[in-house]
Amino acid sequence: MAEIYELMRNYLLPVYILGADINKVQEPVNRPEGYPSYQISICTGGGGIYIDENETEHSIEPGDLFFFAPKTPHRYKATAEPWRMPFIVYTGYGAPNIADYLGFGKSMVLKNIDYDDFNRINVLFNKIYNIYHSSEDLRSARTSSLLYSLLVMISGICRSSSETRSELSAQLAPALSYIKRNIHTDISVDTLAGIVGVSTGRLSVLFKQAFGLSPAHAVRRYKLDHAKHLMDSRPEMKVKELTEQCGFSSPSYFVTAFKKEFGYSPTEYKTKSRSDFMW
């Protein structure tokens, strides 16, 4: 009876927790119709791929976070096991307005969060989890308060990160333009550093801050995304042609890099439509 009473009182709260797990080892998830509640997940180990409602792929590594609203299509799976993804699921009559006010949209990915900020998020996750699974009085109200603090904290980090990324994008624009124009060639980090006018070490810091990737990884990702575009528009292209068009040193390296990045081979991608990659 007490538990039923507690559940009924939850409806009076603007937001309240439906579930929380800080020890989650993530299995593949495929939700073409979305999920009925709001969810926040953080990565504390391993790695994976999250595909949002726009079919945009996001690499999720330790220190990253993603959020989605109810009925927002998405899917995700591990690429480096064990993929540890603590999560909080919540709802409430105020949840839609709060998410809109904080600018979360239908979904959101935050990458390469500052260490101290991520630690603060992780601490709140643990507090919410411990209270939610306790039997103490007013646990729903307390976790609701902590959840609101968490949402505001994430919004602040997101806004700060957006401003930083905007500044970084402007600084890195010449390098990104060079990559796109020379996608079919071998692009060195030294060349990119010279274009931006910084040392290779500083370039690495800038790329990591802007994209959560090293310059070499960013170049490789641009090339692999270009390969996908070519396969979508010209499915008759052979692996050898793709290798040349995307500036890889050999077909075997191209295939290995493609599968490592996306979790499936170029041949698998070519023989199926993009929508077939459902987990």
Q: What's the CATH first level of the largest domain?
A: Mainly Beta
CATH fold assignment of the largest domain:
Jelly Rolls
Q: Indicate the percent of residues in helices.
A: 40-55%
Domain module count? 2
Structural class: alpha+beta
CATH structural architecture of the largest domain: Sandwich
What is the assigned CATH homologous superfamily of the largest domain? Regulatory protein AraC
- The strands making up the biggest β-sheet line up spatially as 1-8-3-6-9
Percent of sequence in beta strands: 15-25%
Overall geometric form: elongated
Largest sheet: 5 strands, antiparallel
SSE topology:
Layout: H1 2-10, E1 16-21, E2 29-31, E3 38-42, E4 45-51, E5 57-60, E6 65-68, E7 74-84, E8 87-91, H2 95-101, E9 107-110, H3 115-132, H4 139-181, H5 189-196, H6 200-211, H7 215-233, H8 239-245, H9 251-262, H10 266-271
Antiparallel strand pairs: 1-8, 2-7, 3-6, 3-8, 4-5, 4-7, 6-9
Short description:
With 279 residues, this protein is α+β, with helices and mostly antiparallel strands. It has helices at residues 2-10, 95-101, 115-132, 139-181, 189-196, 200-211, 215-233, 239-245, 251-262, 266-271; strands at residues 16-21, 29-31, 38-42, 45-51, 57-60, 65-68, 74-84, 87-91, 107-110. It is 51% helix and 18% strand.
Q: Could you explain how this protein is built, in words?
A:
- The mean pLDDT is 90.
- This protein is of the alpha+beta class.
- The protein has helices spanning 2-10, 95-101, 115-132, 139-181, 189-196, 200-211, 215-233, 239-245, 251-262, 266-271; strands at 16-21, 29-31, 38-42, 45-51, 57-60, 65-68, 74-84, 87-91, 107-110.
- It is elongated.
- It folds into 2 domains: 2-163, Regulatory protein AraC (Jelly Rolls, Sandwich), CATH 2.60.120; 182-276, Homeodomain-like (Arc Repressor Mutant, subunit A, Orthogonal Bundle), CATH 1.10.10.
- α3 runs antiparallel to α4, α4 packs across α5 and α4 (139-181) packs across α6 (200-211).
- β4 (45-51) and β5 form a beta hairpin.
- The strands form 2 sheets. It has a 5-stranded antiparallel β-sheet, with helices on one face. It has a 4-stranded antiparallel β-sheet with strand order 2-7-4-5.
